[in-house]
Write a structure and sequence with these properties.
This protein has one domain: Nucleoside Triphosphate Pyrophosphohydrolase. It contains two helices and eight strands; from the N terminus they run βββββαβββα. Strands 5-1-7-6 form a four-stranded mixed sheet. Strands 2, 3, 4 and 8 form a four-stranded antiparallel sheet that branches. The termini are far apart.
Length: about 150
Amino acid sequence: MNQKNKNIRIGVYGLLILENKILMIKKSRGPYKGKYDLPGGKIEERESLETALKREFIEETGLEIEIKDFIANSEVDEHYKNDSGEDREIYLIGSYYFVNIKSGEIKETPDGQDSLGAIFVDLNEIKKENTSRLSFEIIEKYAETKKD
């Protein structure tokens, strides 16, 4: 793998579960294009995890959140082809938190970056085939602990 095609991405993500449904975004690009992913994303320079998660939630979902409990850190190495057909490799490291809604309305439209829109998805519809690998593993392990 050509080093210029390899990225390391550190992000922070939130699990928002209401009435057996989880808030997800549909990815518009990257290794999970077209799949569900948890709201969240890249931490910007000099940004705390909490600040990054709140910013990403507003950008991707339109919701202002309250961060509750830390869940876990997770990591995965992904190989994929970009839209131009070039081989890419990305090493993803994520920190995950349970969150609650403070205010706002769900933005179901694209954010112009990573998200095609936010949607509540029944937990039973979250499958390995339709969900990002990192998100699927975290949801599978921890969603049961926070069902309403």
